[in-house]
Each structure stands twice: as C-alpha cells, then as structure tokens.
Amino acid sequence: MSKNVYQFVDVERIDPPKKPSILRREEFAEIYQPMSETQVAGQADRCLDCGNPYCEWKCPVHNFIPQWLSLANEGRIFEAAELSSKTNTLPEVCGRVCPQDRLCEGACTLNDDFGAVTIGSIEKYITDTAFKQGWRPDMSNVVKTNKKVAIIGAGPAGLGCADILVRNGVKPVVFDKYEKIGGLLTFGIPSFKLEKEVIALRHEIFAEMGMEFVLNTEVGRDLPFQDLLDGYDAVFLGMGTYKAMKGGFDNEKAPGVYEALPYLIANVNRQLGLEKSPDHFIDMKGKKVLVLGGGDTTMDCVRTAIRQGAPDVTCAYRRDEASMPGSRREVVNAREEGVNFKFNLMPLDIAVDENGKAIGVKMVKTEMGQPDAEGRRRPVMVEGSEHVLEADAVIIAFGFQPSPASWFGDYGIILDEKGRVRAPKHGKFAFQTSNPKIFSGGDMVRGSDLVVTAIDEGRNAAEGILDYLGV
Ligand code: FAD
Ligand code: SF4
Residue ranges of the FAD/NAD(P)-binding domain (predicted)? Predict the structure, then answer.
C-alpha cells in the first residue's frame, strides 16, 4: 500500500498525555505519560520528509530527525535508537527538556498551519523503549588507542565529550565534585521534568561503553589540576556556570530570601537521600511564595514550591509574557498546577519587617519600551506605581554568570570579557583554549544556555581533541 502523503492533515498532532494537575501538585515525578506504540507510529508518519529538513538544521546537534521518525513509524526501534545515538549523547533527555517550540518543532514545516510533528516526545520514546528492550549503543567497531583524556564535569558537555572520545577508542576519565553524574540534569532540573532514574541508567550504560567516572572529587581542591595535565593526553573543562545573578537591591540577604539553585539542589538532595543536614532543606510548605524571574529556573522554582505544599505561589516578571525567555510549555504546565503570574512588574527592594525578615518585594509597574542591543524590548518603569507584593518567602531566579575557577590563570586559560572560557569553535582545533592541551565547552564557554547546546559543544570539542591527538 502506498504511503498516505496527507497523513499530516488526517491525523492531528497529539502531545503525550499529562497527568491531572491535582496529582502533579503532590509528586516529584514526570508529568508526561509515555506515548503508545500506535500513537508514536501515527505521529511519526505525519512527517513530510522535507527535502531540506529545517527541523534538523534548527536542532543544535543536527539529529537525523526525518530518518528516525520513519524508522519509529515502521517499529524499527533499535535502528532508530542507534541512528539517534549517532548525533546525540542524551536523546531521551533532550526529548524531555529541550524547548522544542524554539528549536526542532518550531522549525517544522507543519508548525504554523497543521501542528508540528511531536519530535521531542518521539525522540524520548525511541531511546527509552530501546533501552527497556535491551538495546545498547553499538561499540563493536571501536578500535582502542592508548590515549586517555581527563574530563572535568559530568554534566551534558562533559558527557557529550566523553561519548565521542570513547567511540573513537580514547579513554575518557570524567571527574565530578558531586556524588552523581549529570551536572544540572541531576542537581538543577527537577524530577517533574526529568526523573533521576533516567540519568542513573545512563551512568550504567556509559560505564559499560568504557567511560570511567571519578565522583566526589573536586578538581583544584581534592585533586590538583596539574595531576590531570601531567597524567592525560588532553583535558576537557565542562564545569558549567554557577554564579547566581543578583538583583542588586537592598535586603537581598534578608532571612526569607533565597537563591534559586541552592533551593532546587536542597530539594533534590532530600529526594535522593543525599542531604548532609536537615537544616539544608528549604521548605515552602504553607508559605506565600514569590519567585522573581522569567526563565526555566524560575518555572522550576515555582513548581517545586507548589509540590512542597505552598498554597500561594506567584512568579513576577519585569517584561510581558511574550518576552519570557523560558520554554512556553513549562509556563503552561506551571499555570495548570496553580502558579499565579504577574507580568510587567520590576522588583526594587526586598520589603522587611522590624526584625529584618522579608515580608515581600517592593515592585514598580513597567511598560515595554524600545529594543535593547540584543533586540529585546526594555521594561520602562511607570512612575508612581510602586507597591509592595507580600510574601513569606522570596526566591531570586535571575540566571547565572560565569564562575571560572581561580586557578585557570595559572595554566594560561584565558577568559573573555564576560568571564567565559575562550575556546573558539572554529579555532585550529575546535574548542581548544589558549592552553593547547586544554579544551572546553558548554555553559562555561557559551554562558548559561541549554542541555542540547552543552552536549553539542562537548561533542565538537571531542572532535577537536581527536584532531589534536592525531587519532
Ligand atoms: P553543568 O550541567 O553545570 O555541569 C557541570 C558539572 O561540572 C557539574 O556536575 C559540576 O559539579 C562539575 N564541576 C564544576 N567544577 C568542578 C570541579 N572543580 N571539579 C569537579 N567537578 C566540577 N536546559 C534545557 O535545555 N532545558 C531545561 O529545561 C533546563 N532547565 C534548567 C533548569 C535549571 C534550574 C537550570 C539551572 C538550568 C536549566 N537548563 C535547562 C540549562 C542546562 O541545565 C545547562 O545549560 C546545562 O546543564 C549545561 O551543561 P554543562 O555540562 O555545561 O554544565
Ligand atoms: Fe529537538 Fe532537542 Fe531533540 Fe534536537 S535534541 S531534535 S532540538 S528535542
């Protein structure tokens, strides 16, 4: 029977079913349920197989999307997983956390008129299902070399780098200061977006592939960086960005004011049983919570507070809704779970009581003004509109700035004017730093961004390392 080329008209786009929000509010578990085999086949078949697939170009790792959609449609899941793993180190993770509306699905030819193909959900389905059925990445053609590379950071960038190296016969040894791999996948992104078991399974699989992990080890503190430079053929830095951006207003350190990442990490540590002391947990149960910001981290904080039992959670953002930098999908999810949104409100100060404890945030209303240097419209304050938004707890989620290690200068690692490690993609060797033996990628090179862009840079840096080593 010939293929129905109008499948995209006859079959509507469907997203994977979500759990009811009343249940979601109670648990730290993924909210999307798996698609069925039939749904995946039908949705994959909506792909037009465009001659020049925009989705593939827009995807930072340039996945072979139409090809694995076609394999998924035919039920050839192992082949689909193998193909998917050729371009992406963590397809099942990207399928869960990529902002597809801005990337592959946003570029799908069907997007405007018919609804984009559900690329992300199918990408997740392929690898999840293949793993369950026993598939493992094919390493049978790998020819081992005698080279080994030290990788600092087991986040997406470090894992992307290790993936390409190990598939080319170079031994990657990955060091991380945390007790689990994943970087922000484990200790930042909450489990209602990405369950921790996904990364735990990856840990096993990566180890089977030949990656070695040295955890609980902070390079520069527990282990001198010089040891890595002396003991390995090259070093990759994938250490992320961890310096929280401040509001710069009064009383920012008042009791009741929290930074986003320590709040999220404390919650994950409790879930994983890694909490060092109960005092480290930040509990929003019963509190009126105000989260300042508009990105993915903000959405993660508001939704975590809801699950901890906060009855009243508000996100306040200084621009309008259309200007929010985070994923649209997560804003929708937060709303469904009961989060209030207040737009065009700029924080001026933390309001405190007579004991210095936060009782809210002094806000001013804004209007959208002229675009700034990056083309984003500036929020302009409306005179005389100052008022206090009351809260028992305030979480500041303004994003992150580079946090280069103090010892980088000792090894000739040069930073750019923003504090990011300088490692050009198109240098002599991709992502080589100013020290020829040291490469770098991910958030510490491009600034705080996305999982998929960090994976991409780690993989490209590994190609640079292979060229440098002559492998
Ligand atoms: P990281 O993931 O930060 O990993 C760096 C690793 O280096 C860490 O494990 C750290 O412990 C280790 N390290 C640092 N210094 C040392 C040292 N001296 N010795 C040993 N180890 C060290 N992106 C998305 O695409 N979708 C999302 O939904 C999303 N949500 C996010 C939510 C939150 C709360 C945050 C904070 C970020 C989110 N992001 C999201 C962004 C994404 O997580 C990052 O862009 C990505 O993880 C960067 O990868 P990386 O490998 O560069 O760094
Ligand atoms: Fe889309 Fe991200 Fe998968 Fe690329 S990696 S196809 S952008 S979900």
Answer: 147-458
Kindly give the residue spans of alpha helices, DSSP state H, lying in 59-155. 65-73, 77-87, 91-97, 104-107, 119-132
CATH topology classification for 244-399: FAD/NAD(P)-binding domain (3.50.50)
Predicted model pTM:
0.96
- Best residue among 32, 86, 92, 100 to mutate for probing ligand 2, ranked by most atoms within 8 Å of CB: 100
- At the topology level of CATH, where does 7-132 sit? Fumarate Reductase Iron-sulfur Protein; Chain B, domain 2 (1.10.1060)
* H or E stretch at 377: strand 377-381
CA gap 239, 403 in Å, rounded: 9
| CATH superfamily assigned to domain 148-241+402-469 | FAD/NAD(P)-binding domain (3.50.50.60)
Percent of the chain with pLDDT over 70: 99
Give the pairing of strands 400-401 and 243-244: antiparallel
Q: What is the pLDDT of residues 327-374, one digit of tens each?
A: 889 999 999 999 999 999 999 999 999 999 999 999 999 999 988 888
Q: Of 138, 110, 122, which is closest to residue 9 (Cα–Cα)? A: 110
